[in-house]
TrEMBL record:
Protein's UniProt name: adenylate kinase
Sample GO molecular function, one term: AMP kinase activity
EC class of the enzyme, as a word: transferase
Record's keyword terms, sorted: Kinase, Nucleotide-binding, Transferase
Cited InterPro entries: Adenyl_kin_sub, Adenylat/UMP-CMP_kin, Adenylat_kinase_CS, Adenylate_kinase_lid-dom, P-loop_NTPase
Enzyme Commission code: 2.7.4.3
Catalytic activity: AMP + ATP = 2 ADP
Organism superkingdom: Eukaryota
Amino acid sequence: MPVDLSEVPTDELMKEIQHRLDCTTKPEKRIILIGPPGCGKGTQSPRIKYEHCLCHLATGDMLRAAVAAKTPLGLEAKKAMDAGALVSDDIVVGLIEEATQRAECSKGFILDGFPRTVVQARKLDEMLAKRGQAIDKVLNFVVPDSLLVERVVGRWVHPASGRSYHEKFAPPKVAGVDDTTGEPLIKRKDDNADTLKARLGAFHSQTAPVIEHYARKVVALKADRAQDEVASAIASALS
């Protein structure tokens, strides 16, 4: 069905066309973002996505979408969840494999929230190797635990895009509203101090070994700096 573009300003259309033309010359990249809750991944990933023409894959969102759409993998995942079991790594890797075949992922992807363990990392590597591909870079967002509580408790998110804001460090132009769409922001139920402590414990015990697994591809980012400084460090790492 044709899309009606009559209401889209010409300058916005031209900007999008130029961006898509620029994307055709971009090299492929497959990137993993690693970091504890509140480290700034959600702030930086839209920039990385746009600059390098990548798709952003958040496995939690993908899983919920697959269950809602009742895809074969989604039905398998729902069966596990209904039984009170964890969704298997094979199902999650299968979702990633399906997602990375979409046109929007033709230049590569950003993986956020996976892999969380070395076992998951190995399964991901095996899936990519079958396609002659591999992870190119792992961006490790390093923030002292002591700073994370304030970051997480003050965070607000635009659920449709994943854009995140902070009531102190990066507030939206209008309180409670996304800068781009004007839609309401939400506070995730897990964004509280008690939940954060538990998640930090899980992160350090399970996910830190993933950094060692990808040691030769890891770039450590001092992520407790200003957003633009972190963005500049990421640009250097991915250049």
